[in-house]
Amino acid sequence: MGGPGLVTNQVEYVGSEDPRVADYRDLTDVGWRTKVEPGAGYFLAEGEKVILRALAAGYRPRSALMAEKWLPGLAAPLAAHDVTVLVADESVLRSIVGFRLHRGALAAFERKPRPPIADLIADASRLLLLEDLVDHTNVGLIVRTAAAFGIDAVLVSPRCADPYYRRSVKTSMGAVLTMPWTVAEPWPGTLTWLREAGFTLLGLTPDPAGVDIRSWHAAEGDRLALLLGTEGGGLSAEALAAVDVWLRIPMTSRVDSLNVAAAAAVACFAVTG
Predict the structure, then answer these.
(1) How confident is the model over 84-119, as pLDDT tens digits?
(2) Domain parsing of the chain, residue ranges
(3) Residues 207, 211, 217, 220: is their CA dihedral positive or negative?
(4) Which pLDDT tens digit goes with each residue over 133-172?
(5) SS3 state at 132
(6) What's the pTM value of the predicted model, to 2 decimals?
(7) Is 169 helix (H, G, I), strand (E, B) or coil?
(8) In this structure, how many other beta carbons lie within 10 angstroms of the beta carbon of residue 31?
C-alpha cells in the first residue's frame, strides 16, 4: 500500500520487532538516547510541524515512523528525499517508543556539522550562552525565545543539554534547526576569547549585587553576549568572575528565582530592545 505522493515501496507497514524502527526505540530512556543519537549522527523530530520545518531547514531525513493518519501531510514532502516511511498503528507505536505518541509522527534526520565559533559570531551582535543547563525542555524553550527576540547565535557549554535532543527540538517548535548554534569549547575559556573578539559579557544572576536589568542599557554598537546558568545553581563562580556586568531581574520576596526559560525571555528582550 502507498501513501499520497509516494511510490509503493516508500511506505511500509511495520511491527514492533522490525529492525528498521531501531532509531525510534525506547525514547523514555534519556540517558541511552543522549549517547546513541549524537554517536550515530542523527536526531528525532516529533510532530508534523517540526518535521516539515526540519525539511525546510535543509536537514536530510533517514526515515520516518508514523500513524497512517499523518501520511496526507507528510508523505509528499518526504517523497522528495527518497526516504522510507514506516507506518504502524498506535499500539505498535507505543510499544516501540515507550509512551503514547500524541503527535503521531517521528522522523530521524542527519545532524549537520557544528560550525566553528569564529564563523558563527563573525557578523553577530547578540549572543546567548547557556552554561550546563540539564533540562532539554528548558533548552528548547530558550532557543525558541532567542529566535523570537533576534538573538544571532546560541553557544552551549560542553555539559549543556543537547539542543538536538527530541524534547529540545519539540519545545523549540523547530527553532533549534534554524538558530545558529554550536558548543563553546573550551569552557569557560571561550568567554575570554569572546571578550577579545569585542563582546561585552553579561551574566544573569539573582544576586542583589547585580544591576537591575530595567535600568541597564547597551551602548550604541555594543556586541553583547548574555550568559544563563543552570536551573538550580545559576552561573558558576568561574563564569560570574569572567563576565563584565552582572544583571538581575527584580522580583518580589514571594520567590527566590525565575525558571531559567522565563528569565531568558525577560533578559533576551532587554538586550535586544
Answers:
(1) 899 999 999 999 999 988 778 999 999 999 999 999
(2) 8-110, 117-272
(3) negative
(4) 999 999 999 999 999 999 999 999 999 999 999 999 999 9
(5) coil
(6) 0.93
(7) helix
(8) 7
* Number of residues assigned to the chain: 273
b/e string for 100-133 if b means 16 or more Cβ within 10 A?
ebeebbbbbbeeeeeeebeebbeebbbbbbbbbb
Classify 8-110 by CATH class: alpha beta
Report the sign of the C-alpha dihedral through residues 189, 216, 123, 56, in that order.
Answer: positive
- Say how far apart CA 30 and CA 239 lie, in whole Å: 28
Q: What is the DSSP letter of 47?
A: S
Q: Which three cell numbers stand for residue 44?
A: 528525532
Query: Grid coordinates 501531510 are at which residue?
Result: 73
Element (H, E) at 191: helix 189-196
Strands 211-212 and 181-183, by their bridges, are: unpaired
Specify the 3-state DSSP secondary structure of 136: helix
Reply yes or no on domain 117-272 having CATH 3.40.50.300: no
C-alpha cell at 179: 538558530
**Residue 14 has what DSSP assignment?**
-
Would 8-110 and 117-272 be classified into the same CATH topology? no
225: three-class secondary structure by DSSP: strand
E-assigned strand segments in the chain: 11-13, 42-46, 61-66, 85-87, 105-110, 126-130, 153-156, 181-183, 199-204, 211-212, 223-228, 245-248
